Amino acid sequence: MGPIYKYAVVVLLLVVIFSLGQALYYMMTDKDDDKRMAWALTRRIALSLLLIGMVVFGIWMGWLQPHDVGGNG
């Protein structure tokens, strides 16, 4: 389950980045109407919350292993 879960987290992160790029595109092209930009940003927030939840759940289940970046001294 671990490798599949890690791939799902990475794919979800890429979808979040894509949604952010979509919002930027809509902000630049839609001068009169900001509904598409707002919807893209709302979708990004929802996906980001899902991503955070997936990371927390993966750590809790032991599928994701956080590591100490700085070392022990």
Order of helices and strands: HH
Strand content: under 5%
Poorly predicted tracts of residues: none
Instruction: Classify the helix fraction into a percent range.
Output: over 70%
Query: Measured on Cα atoms, how large is the radius of gyration?
Result: 16 Å
Our measurement of the CA-to-CA distance between the termini, rounded to an integer number of angstroms, reads 33 Å
- Mean pLDDT reading: 88
Number of domains: 1
Q: How many strands, what sense, and barrel or not for the largest sheet?
A: none
Number of helices: 2
The tally of beta strands, per DSSP, is: 0
Which term fits the overall shape?
Answer: elongated
User: What is the structural class?
Assistant: mainly alpha
Protein name: Twin transmembrane helix small protein
Pfam families: DUF2909
Keywords: Membrane, Transmembrane, Transmembrane helix
Can you walk through the features of this model?
- The protein has 73 residues and is mainly alpha-helical.
- It has one domain (2-61).
- It contains 2 helices and no strands.
- It has helices at 2-29, 35-61.
- Helix 1 runs antiparallel to helix 2 (35-61).
- The N and C termini lie far apart (33 Å).
- The mean pLDDT is 88.
- The chain crosses the membrane at residues 6-25, 45-63.
- It comes from Rhodanobacter lycopersici.
- This is Twin transmembrane helix small protein.
